[in-house]
Description:
The protein is of the alpha+beta class. It has 15 helices and 14 strands.
Amino acid sequence: MSPRINFLSREFMENPHPHLAELRRQGPVVQVDPGGIWAVTHHDEVQHVLKSPRLFSSSGLRFAFSPAWLGRTNPLSYSIAFMDPPHHGRLRALVTQAFTPKALARLESRIHATARKCVDDMLEKRQVDFVDALSTAIPASVIGHLLGLDESRHAQLKQWTLDIATLSGVAPDDTTGMARCRATVEELDGYSRQMLADRRREPREDMVSDLVQARVGTEALTDDELVGFFVALLVGGLETTVSLLSHCARMFAMRPELLPRLRATPTLIPRFVEETLRYEPPILSIPRTCTEDVTLAGVTLPKGATVLVSLVSASRDEKHFPDGDRFILERENAQQIYFGHGIHFCIGARLTRLEARIALEELVSRVDRVELRTEHVEWTPSLIVRGPATLPVELFPA
Ligand code: HEM
């Protein structure tokens, strides 16, 4: 029997696609490392798990992927992403109100201004880390603004979310990494609670003030739930978008004909974004816990088992995406799964599409070519998010 594939190994992080293709050949439900977790690799089964929250719970995972020292202080533990019905629906109804098309339209000019400034700076320097120079700056400005954070805090958002995303990937013997994550969790928790107290005293025109005042029936949200929201938006909204924008830049470097094509026909940009999301989904896999013994594709998963639903694998499943290893700009992505499926479907999908479209409009109108300045991309170690940790590039003006 061949050794189990490890989702945290360097070879897997560098290029998970051949490994996942091999897993798909083995079957829709296969054991992987670390820890012999069950991975769900076929699109049909992935969809089935995601639309069956009664059998595959999100809440059981609050602590599964974090080190023991975090215990109940894990700020993700009160996030809606880690809740099941009926509590999930009650809280979700509140946040979705903040993501209406009208609310998003108000963000457009901010995104354009941030993207324009990023492109100005990048063209002046020519050699930059794309992750820092554009991928992070745009979502940090949007999320920071939505949450009413001081501009001075925006640069910090990235490190916070990175450390939280990394929690699932820090090796227990990496004491430096652990200490950094621990310091971040404590700082984030303290900062969030201080901000909640400030907004209670002095409400502003921002999402945090709205949430502080929100009522579900007669109940107010608890501080833990509010911190959970805050962290969910940070983690859900920042690192994923950073990853998407960096994957777009990587595509431009790997397929130099694409950028001039988009400059000539900017209406193709949304299509390019969708195919990049499919080809390199920012969310590698999402975890669920079995609430009872469940048989999935002939495999019996015991009650309490963790399953990793692989969105990257499902997005290349040949049954749904013929010639899935090819980047095809014209592809119809009707079966897209990269924003999830069912009750937890991404709240920020519309916002992400807006951010990516505007960022790329600014980029392709002024940049002719993006070249990678490294042989090996360094990847963020995580079971959940997949994106370059840094992306040294050189830009050539149009
Ligand atoms: C949920 C992907 C951007 C906020 C999800 C889920 C996926 C996803 C796959 C489902 C998780 C699950 O089923 O457990 C992405 C990708 C993004 C992105 C690929 C960008 C490229 C955003 C943004 C925000 C956001 C910009 C907010 C500002 C959330 C929240 C949830 C979520 C709050 C939890 C929803 C729930 O549990 O009901 N996202 N997301 N995401 N996303 Fe996103």
